[in-house]
Description:
mainly alpha; 0% strand; 5 helices
Amino acid sequence: MVENRIDLVLSPEQLAEAVGHLQALDALCSGFDIALTDEERRSLPKLGDKSLAFVTKALEAAETHADLLARNFDIADFRRDVTLYQQGESLSLRLVALQRALDDATMQAGSEAFQAALLVYGYLQKQQDSDPGVSAMVTELGERFAAQRRKRTPRTSP
């Protein structure tokens, strides 16, 4: 028998509510959609934990010593970038955790469903001679494995 590690079904209302929340989150975060190219991603300097401390100290220094900076240096823009990075990072960490949980639950449910389907297929194979309808169903279900059987069949040379 299949081990049932997850036993959950979302009602249509719950699913619709979740989709609505995702749409609302998407709308709230619409400004985040700048779509960097792969080349841009590779070429941008990255901000990690160690660099964040440097950036934060530099912001403090800029605010304290604004008179020493170039006139066109925009401290408010710098502050907004630091704040947005911190906010985005915080949201991203929560989304990554949620995505991981959703992926794990979906993977487990899919695995359980596939294992159950294999059991059904095995049961039906044993009974296919008893009913033409069962035999047809076994043939139809067996199409899932037809490509694998072809790959395993050794080719003979002419």
